[in-house]
Design brief:
Length: 552
């Protein structure tokens, strides 16, 4: 059903389509793109120059401060806060009450506002202190006090941090030799309390704690607010993928490759186009190292690449690439291999504006609707968006097997805008735009197939009419449905009016007709419809695998 649908989400995969044939039919009003070949993994990858994405939120925490990044991150996550005068006091001692409050916030726990086991804890800290005590992170003194405003010793910070992370059992399981191996290199290790020694050892082993440049651990001194931020930040990063270096390879013959190195496997990775020139990649369970980076790429395909923290709870990072002249892109997630760790790889392919006949055509395939826009709803509740996508993916497969190049405006249940769909096709200079839909009507008896092209009876796209007639003819021959014709729609139907190339929109059948809905739900019928659409495209182009040279 024609309805305002929507970007351009590209498939996330490891495959790079290989063009095997050449376009031999010169089609008026279209422009050919050069062949996109196989990626050859020999091009070097250099590091892009990057910089901090932001200054400090606090007047007394400069970007050169060791704890700057940690304070900024934890402030964004609402784990730590500054003072009313805009300062943070990174060198001030962290009190026991502050430590309890910050750790409870970091773990996202609901606070206990009922219990009052410590007589000296006031209302500002009591809910956090009681929650931490309930969890077994902290204990009071023998006199029943907690002393919330007393500075927290570094060794005690190790104890409550390890407990808050659920590592207490692992700490207690350390052997004496394992503990000694971690703490003995510090000349003041004898000052660590016996009960704190395994906790300090585990905090050192797992990278939460580090000694000073003087070789001292200073276990009995108060930990500062800045030092706490560093420890808490390191703890947070252990379970997340940190997006670190941005590496760029611009000497591939057919593309620019941008690689984002990760400290661990990420959560879900999704990509979409924002407008016609910004590729947005959202990465779940991830952190942008240093708060974010901005790198100049400067290739014909990619101008800049940047990372930033998208959200703190849940933790997610965003990658953006500012694109210039490109034909398509592929986003892949790669596991550790060849001496490299986890990575997100973005390949942005070149665009060449050669004359028609210089390479196989590029076909933009648009599955109507998607995401929150279901399109028509069938008699039994089937959603148009799902039928459209199933048919479109099959058309894509057939055309690629025939040696053509394709781009999909969506390859999953995403929701691109109409403008974004046509923007990507126009930017890539696709030769044909084909939008796949299914129909609906108030009359349940309405049925049949129709295909639209731009214009009115008086003014219309000649090439659009030719393509629409080819697709319509093949659909009717294959499906045996009622022929509603290839015809113009209202002149300003967006995907037809805003496409710079030959464009059509086909309505395969009526979901509001019980008989046709039953057919459209059948995968075999969907494949039959897809094959007919593909034959119409091939017929319009005059394209046949026999026209392709051997090999490739």
């Amino acid at each position: 059903m024609i309805h305002t649908p929507v970007i351009l989400r590209r498939r996330i995969s490891h495959e790079v389509p290989v063009s095997r044939a050449r376009w031999v039919a010169a089609i008026a009003a279209t422009r050919a793109l050069a062949v996109v070949g196989v990626i050859v993994m020999t091009a070097s990858l250099g590091f892009a120059a990057s910089a901090q994405a932001h200054a400090s939120s606090f007047a007394d925490v400069s970007p050169s401060e060791p704890a700057h990044v940690a304070v900024e991150y934890l402030s964004g996550a609402k784990v730590v806060a500054g003072y009313p005068d805009g300062t943070f006091h990174p060198g001030a001692a962290l009190s026991r009450g502050q430590a309890a409050k910050m750790l409870v916030r970091q773990r996202g726990l609901a606070t206990d506002s009922g219990t009052r086991r410590f007589a000296d804890v006031d209302a500002s800290y009591s809910p956090y202190v009681e929650t931490a005590a309930d969890k077994g992170w902290i204990t009071g003194y023998s006199d029943g006090t907690l002393r919330p405003y007393v500075g927290l010793q570094r060794q005690h910070m190790a104890v409550i941090m390890v407990r808050s992370l659920g590592w207490a059992e692992a700490a207690e399981a350390l052997t004496g030799s394992q503990v000694a191996a971690q703490i003995d290199p510090f000349s003041d290790a004898a000052g660590i309390a016996v009960e704190a020694r395994p906790y300090v050892a585990l905090a050192l082993a797992r990278g939460l704690f580090q000694g000073g440049a003087d070789g001292l651990l200073s276990p009995g001194t108060s930990i500062t607010r800045g030092q706490f931020s560093l420890v808490a930040y390191r703890a947070e990063l252990r379970d997340l993928a940190v997006i670190g270096a941005i590496r760029v390879g611009a000497d591939y013959p057919d593309m620019t490759r941008v690689v984002f190195d990760l400290s661990a496997a990420p959560g879900a990775v999704t990509s979409r186009m924002s407008g016609s020139s910004v590729l947005v990649i959202d990465v779940a369970k991830a952190v942008a190292a240093g708060g974010g980076a901005d790198a100049s790429v400067g290739s014909p395909e990619v101008q800049r690449a940047a990372t930033r923290q998208l959200s703190y709870r849940p933790q997610a990072a965003r990658i953006t690439l500012t694109l210039d002249r490109f034909s398509r892109f592929e986003v892949s997630t790669l596991p550790p291999s060849d001496g490299k760790g986890d990575r997100i790889v973005v390949d942005v392919f070149k665009r060449t504006d050669g004359p028609p006949g210089g390479g196989p055509p590029l076909i933009a395939l648009d599955a109507g609707h998607g995401g929150s826009d279901t399109g028509a709803i069938g008699v039994t509740g089937v959603k148009e968006k799902d039928i459209n996508l199933a048919i479109t993916l099959e058309v894509d497969k057939i055309l690629r097997e025939k040696g053509l190049r394709t781009m999909l405006t969506r390859s999953d249940d995403s929701y691109p805008t109409l403008q974004e769909r046509t923007d990507l096709a126009n930017q890539a200079q696709a030769n044909i735009f084909v939008s796949v839909h299914n129909n609906a009507a108030g009359d349940p008896a309405s049925d049949g197939t129709e295909t639209f092209y731009w214009g009115t009876d008086a003014e219309y796209s000649v090439e659009g009419k030719r393509l629409a007639e080819a697709i319509q003819r093949n659909l009717i021959a294959s499906l045996g449905s009622d022929d509603r014709g290839a015809r113009t729609h209202w002149k300003n139907l967006h995907v037809l009016a805003a496409s710079n190339m030959t464009a059509v929109l086909t309505e395969v059948g009526f979901l509001t007709n019980a008989e046709e809905e039953a057919k459209l739900k059948d995968p075999a019928y969907q494949k039959k419809a897809a094959a007919a659409v593909a034959r119409g495209i091939l017929e319009y182009l005059g394209w046949s695998p026999s026209t392709a040279p051997a090999g490739g």
